[in-house]
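Re: [help] complex structure
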Amino acid sequence: METKGNFPLKAFTSLETPFYYYDLDVLRQTLDTLKNEAQKNRVNVHYAIKANANPRIVSMIQMYGFGIDCVSGGEIRAALKAGVPADKIVFAGVGKSDWEINLALEAGIFCFNVESVPELEVIDALAAAKGVTAPVALRINPDVQADTHHYITTGLKENKFGINLCDVDAVIDLTLALPHVKLVGLHFHIGSQILEMNNFAGLCSRVNEIQAQLARRNLSVEHINLGGGLGVDYHHPDEAAIPDFAEYFSTIRRMLRLRPDQSLHVEPGRSVVAQCGSLISKVLYVKQGSVKQFAILDAGMTELIRPALYQAYHKIENISSDGEVEKYDVVGPICESSDCFGKEVPLGKTRRGDLVAIRTAGAYGETMSSNYNLRPTPKSYFSDDLA
Ligand SMILES: *Cc1c(COP(=O)(O)O)cnc(C)c1O
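Output below.
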């Protein structure tokens, strides 16, 4: 057996586990589709680099001409290093440090997505010190529903993100009064892993209301940025490898009433990179418990924290076994009971040394990895090199 599904099993057997494996054909197909649909719908894409900042992945995304959405100074540096033009970089986050703001001012980024009044005042002061004007979009908390895990909803009024709806008029007044910031856009981001198009439709209705509120004051901005959040199908990584960007873009195009000459921007992260990545791990032990059996892996929450953090589902496959299917609790080696990738997971008869693929790990896998327990950072491998 040389390959299993799309995995080069023979090449895998000589690699140290655990490792991240990226199928670049899946990434290229995703980027082709995204680029096509974005052009058709006149949408500007800024890839949210926090989903996966692996330099090879970012450089491929950059080659398609997409911009980058950053949430830290380190991410701005990574985007610039990958060759992304500064004028395609947006910078969000509730807690931007002074050095990060200065870095972004020096680079000359497209826009700061500003989340509070004190932040706006600091950006104005730091821009003044440099004798420049900072382009800003106000991140507004639209208070709309996102049907996803409560840890990854961001657009409800109890969340820490953005400027509250009732404060919008006052914050706009302040922005217009500050001499070293220029109001260029409105920014929104309602959460992540959203598959319900109605949620995006709800966001668009809210944006229309806010735009009408601005229009009553004869105000308009150059761009509208709807953020990221489009979800992926964790249950069907092969059958649904490419997210439905067409449906997503057509929903927002249909619902959103843009002003003349206003540009539309989005910041997809997960939907771009999730399906191209897998975490490949070796079975260390199969342990018979009193009521269940455990497959104990050499990968854990240090390499993929989503199951431990959000009870997230990832499809798990034993890519070494053709044996009869049995149920296993698939766990990692970390000293935490939450270090569990899945319970009652159907796997082919599993033995020590088998390779297991944890699918749809391309987003928020490698970037959220840690060295907890002093575990080393795993390597990453790419299909183009192993084929
Ligand atoms: C995380 C984040 C994104 C990307 O979200 P996805 O769900 O990965 O698409 C986009 N914009 C902002 C401001 C974010 O914080």
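The CA atoms of residues 98 and 146 lie 32 Å apart.
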